[in-house]
Structure formats: C-alpha cells, structure tokens
Amino acid sequence: MVEAGDVDEADGLTDQLIENEQRAPLSTADMAHAVARLLALGKNQAEIARRLGRGKDLIAIYAAVPQMPTELRALAEGLGAR
C-alpha cells in the first residue's frame, strides 16, 4: 500500500500492526516489542491504545513485558501477556 504525504515512523508502525493483526493475532512478544518501539518513538500508552483499538490496561501490560525477568518473559510468550 502506498500512502500520499508524510507518514512518520510511529504512524507507519501502527498501520503495520493493525494490518498484521487483521491477518493473524500477533504474539505477546511481537506486541511487546512493537509497544516498546512506539513508546521509544514518543507515543504514550493512551495514544497507542486508542490507535490500536485496545484498552490502555493491555498496552500497559505489553509495555511491562520487556522489563520482566527472563523467566517471566518466557512464560508471557507461552501464556499470553496477562
């Protein structure tokens, strides 16, 4: 898909997430990585939640996954973020 105009990296990533999620659910690790990238690009959790159509509480969980100890991150991947 080609879009006219300037699309910043955060908007492009968000659009890709939405498109990929429509094909198949993304893993917890993929969503956690994407949320971490969006946060690093200056988006806040409320903006990310609104744009992805998810609750802020779920985005907060994804944001916390990278800071978890390795053992818990491994469990989150198999069991989901919650």
Oligomeric state as shown: single chain
Number of distinct helices: 5
In terms of structural class, how would the helical and strand content be classed?
A: mainly alpha
Give start-end ranges of low-pLDDT stretches: none
Task: Tell me the distance between the termini.
Answer: 33 Å
Overall spatial form: globular
Largest sheet: none
Name the average pLDDT.
Answer: 86
Q: Name the helix and strand elements from N-terminus to C-terminus, one letter apiece.
A: HHHHH
Rounded to an integer in angstroms, the radius of gyration calculated over CA atoms is 13 Å
Structural overview:
The structure is a single chain. By secondary structure, the protein is an all-alpha fold. The protein is built from 5 helices and no strands. It has helices at residues 9-23, 28-40, 45-52, 56-64, 70-79. The protein is globular. The termini are far apart.
Task: Describe this protein with a few key phrases.
single chain, 82 residues, mainly alpha, globular
